[in-house]
Design a protein that fits this description.
Layout lengths: L1 H13 L6 H11 L15 H12 L13 H4 L4 E4 L3 H4 L7 E4 L1 H7 L4 H7 L9 H11 L2 H8 L5 H15 L1
Antiparallel strand pairs: 1-2
Length: 171
Amino acid sequence: NQKINETIKKRLIELKQEPTQGNIDLYKLWSRQNIEDYPKQSKEPTIEEVQKLRIWEEQKCISPYTLKPIPLSKLFSPERLYDIVPKSRFFDDSLSNKVVCETSINEEKDNRTAWEYISQQNSKIGICSVDNYIQHINNTFFGKKKRNLLMEKIPVDFVERQKKDTQYISV
């Protein structure tokens, strides 16, 4: 148990999080439920909670919109997984279209893509500049998620293809 605590403490320091006993306990609960030495807790984490932790680590514990750290202690309270490009506009519910961010930011972002939200710079909450956003996305993300975060326009052919696929499925 002490060995596990030391390993988690090192990981928290790597993630620039406070290595408090509370954060160690939270990290145990949500990320290491399958370590044999670690006793099973009475409540197993949900799939969304495990995904949220993985995405949070992938983001280096930072909100892509404000560039402020999301503390581990807040990860499982109001902050949730949110769509980069709204599902209603892109029909993509994969993890490459999800980020962890502040609930208030996502509410303000509303039905806009990440790029539309950042580039309009009309936030009342305080988002990062366009240049800082681009630099952060290029340094932190890759592949489809990076493309989604920097997507200026939703490809029309993608939406049309999705509609046709849905039509074929419903026949």
